[in-house]
Amino acid sequence: LVVAADGAHSRLRQWVGLPTREWDYGQQAIVCTVRTAQSHRYTAWQRFSPTGPLAFLPLLSESGDEHFCSIVWSQDTEEARRLMGLDDHAFKAELERAIERELGAVDLVSRRYAFPLRQRHAKEYIAPGFALVGDAAHTIHPLAGQGANLGYGDVRALLDELASARSKGIDPDNELVLARYQRRRKGENLAMMAAMEGFKQLFGRDELTLRWLRNTGMRWLNRLGPIKNRIAAEAMGLDA
């Protein structure tokens, strides 16, 4: 059994000839590491704008410094190009404004990189003696950080099926074993991809009525502890 875990542009997937459905989001993600004046408090911070979301993700340095964050700033392509064209001083000012100075001044920024965002989903995850996992099978918008969790779910399901097959003396490349893996994962991955697309559309709109309904709904959800915890557990790939 060959397991392809070689990323969104999987050579193994291409060599085996498994086709994908894909479309461009019309956005680019800018990534870099920043140091902020205030501690990140081990909290991920996210702000949404009509041109795309910005996430500050907490990092912990070897010295225990709690002021470093990794950023993922997804913006419409033209806006992303404008931001990439700024010098470090101007870029830091834009970051502070976009995150509403939640962590104070941004006083350090690493080299920036930008890459186009594209949704991609393999029509089939399996072929004889072959299985796709992770980004080789599917890529989604990074706005909620679910790409890695979906990949972990693939690995967990494939390991479960292989362990079950081994206990019964069945070869790992057995067609039925791989088909069970695909059934377990394809529907869940598609559901999450659809949810993230809806989330992106919901927070990308700026109409007053929609904004009021969205914010009211989020405040209502925040007060419902058990439901909020269940959603958080699902998002983290945990058994609630």
How do you describe this structure in short?
The chain has 240 residues and is an alpha+beta fold. It has 7 helices and 10 strands.
Number of strands: 10
CATH superfamily of the largest domain: D-Amino Acid Oxidase, subunit A, domain 2
The CATH class of the largest domain is identified as Alpha Beta
Number of domains: 2
What CATH calls the topology of the largest domain is D-Amino Acid Oxidase, Chain A, domain 2
What gyration radius follows from the Cα positions, in whole Å? 20 Å
> Biggest sheet: strands, sense, closure?
7 strands, antiparallel
Mean pLDDT: 87
Instruction: List unreliable stretches of 5+ residues.
Output: none
Q: Assess the beta-strand content as a share of residues.
A: 25-35%
Overall shape: elongated
Alpha plus pi helix count: 7
Query: Can you name the CATH architecture of the largest domain?
Result: 2-Layer Sandwich
What are the defining features of this structure?
240 residues, alpha+beta, FAD/NAD(P)-binding domain, D-Amino Acid Oxidase, Chain A, domain 2, 7 helices, 26% strand
Give your account of this protein's structure:
The protein has 240 residues and is of the alpha+beta class. It has two domains: 2-19 and 124-187, FAD/NAD(P)-binding domain, CATH 3.50.50.60; 24-117, D-Amino Acid Oxidase, subunit A, domain 2 (D-Amino Acid Oxidase, Chain A, domain 2, 2-Layer Sandwich), CATH 3.30.9. It has seven helices and ten strands. The two termini are 32 Å apart. 27% of the residues are buried.
